[in-house]
Amino acid sequence: MVARSRPVSQLLFMQYAVMWLFGDVVKEKKEEKPPVSSDDGTPDFSPPPEKSQSEQVTIKDPGLALSGRLPLGARLVGKQTKELISIPVDALTKHTIVLAGSGSGKTVLVRRLVEEAALLGIPAIVIDSANDLARMGDRWSTPPENWSDGDRQKAERYHQNTQVAVWTPGREAGNPLSLEPLPDLAAVKNDPEELDQAADMARDALQEIVAPGKAQTAILKRGILKAALMYFAKDGGGRLPDLIELLSDLPLEAGGGIADAGKKAQAMADSLRAEILNNPLLRQSGSALDPSVLFGLDNHSGKTRISILNFVGLPSLEAQQQFLNQLFMTLFTWIKKNPAPKDQPLRGLLVLDEAKDFVPSIRSTPCKASLNRLAAQARKYGLGLIFATQAPKSIDHNIIANCSTQFYGRANSPTAIEVIEEQLRQRGGSGQDIARLEQGQFYATSERLPIPTKILTPLCLSDHPSSPLGESDVLERARRSRNRL
């Protein structure tokens, strides 16, 4: 009788141990609720008050000092919040996507995921194209009413132990990044498959400058460029000026056997020289686009770095796509050379909000191919990608397929509702209420949460007003970052 009732496993502190050892969800006994600790540490056996669905959850954090686990939110049953749901942090290496419409709490969820990861010592590179992520280093002026004591403590730890750096590629007045349009090809020269992919990415990044169009001459030039990049990598690689020098006097064996390769290569070298003169991103000063710096591996303070790459200096979508293409290429070769240590399964996170602008489902963009290649390879080396979008049908299906952890929030358009319901049905859920979910409510699935679980997510730990920052506010935060680095 005693064995059947399992009294020890129903003790609160044992439930946390069981959750840590055996899974993501500690199931409750239907006939009784586990006690929740009150503020003074005394177990409270009184039933919890009724909550409306619109209320933000106050989650009692069991310490999530449960090492190596990332909290997601509280399981929702009807209007009641239940146990805390978490996943192993290494699940993030298999990528994450948030599919949710405007007003769903999507951005808050993404920010909280990054903040929780930072509390575990995991750095992040966060793409901020809408000026609503550069506040991740700001404290709330007034703590949210629905914060628990655990949230207050976490926020204090987050701000003490995290270094948020705001970067402004294209804007010298902030904290600029210089653009190097070549990845470190030498880093993958001993792996034929990855070298081939890296050379393809570099060719794709340069071909609109040196070999645009579909004419036969352009096709020949692209072939010569690919052959020259392969030769360049095996000869030690280097930066763009080094490649220009190679193209100016191309060795016979570096031309891929194409007739007049040397003459065509010299013309490409001249096109690249002209691009450097015309493109401010290629000639500006500032820190090099170095993942080691963005992830804070140069940081001797012991703080975890979150690098916010703000696009206030890149007003056109094409310029943003070109910059991201360079970032993705650089990460592709860098992570191969700097994989996650054995005792740290996750080297860092790359976060891309409004992903449909960069990896659309139908048309091509300057960064689409490189991001798909990065997503396919990054998990092997411990780089986790987080995507978010309001329009799930508008994002490349390969991105969704590459994400093992998925969040589905309120959708607003009939098309988005249809796509999300289908995604949930494929995973054993129904999603019939997806259009009625309230702010902060999401369905979550992961390898350890195979059936979609409805959760209520907490507010972020850093300040998040309703309106985005203005340009001058972004630049001020960027200047402060530059002075601290």
Describe it.
The model is unreliable at 1-66 (pLDDT under 50). The chain has helices at 2-5, 12-22, 106-119, 149-161, 192-210, 216-234, 240-248, 261-278, 280-283, 291-294, 317-337, 368-378, 397-401, 414-426, 471-484; strands spanning 36-37, 43-44, 69-77, 80-88, 96-99, 124-128, 162-167, 177-178, 287-288, 304-310, 348-352, 383-389, 405-408, 441-446, 449-456. The chain has 485 residues and is α/β, with parallel strands linked by helices. The chain has 15 helices and 15 strands. The chain folds into three domains: 1-42, no CATH class; 70-75 and 82-177 and 289-484, P-loop containing nucleotide triphosphate hydrolases (Rossmann fold, 3-Layer(aba) Sandwich), CATH 3.40.50; 185-280, no CATH class. Helix 6 (216-234) packs across helix 8 (261-278), helix 7 packs antiparallel against helix 8 and helix 11 (317-337) runs parallel beside helix 12 (368-378).
Structural features:
alpha/beta; 37% helix; disordered N terminus; globular; Rossmann fold; 11-stranded mixed beta sheet; 485 residues
As a whole number of angstroms, the C-alpha radius of gyration is 25 Å
**Strand fraction:** 15-25%
Q: Tally the helices: what do you get?
A: 15
Q: Can you tell me the residue ranges where pLDDT is under 50 for at least 5 consecutive residues?
A: 1-66
Structural class: alpha/beta
Biggest β-sheet strands, sense, barrel: 11 strands, mixed
Work out the number of β strands: 15
Would you tell me which CATH topology of the largest domain applies?
A: Rossmann fold
Helix content: 25-40%
How are helices and strands ordered from N to C? HHEEEEEHEHEEHHHHHEHEHEHEHEHEEH
Question: Class of the largest domain, according to the CATH hierarchy?
Answer: Alpha Beta
- Number of separate structural domains: 3
Alpha-carbon distance between the termini?
A: 63 Å
Shape: globular
Name the strands of the widest sheet in spatial order.
Answer: 4-3-15-14-13-5-12-11-6-10-7
The CATH superfamily of the largest domain appears as: P-loop containing nucleotide triphosphate hydrolases
CATH architecture group name of the largest domain: 3-Layer(aba) Sandwich
What is the average per-residue confidence, as pLDDT, rounded to a whole number? Answer: 84
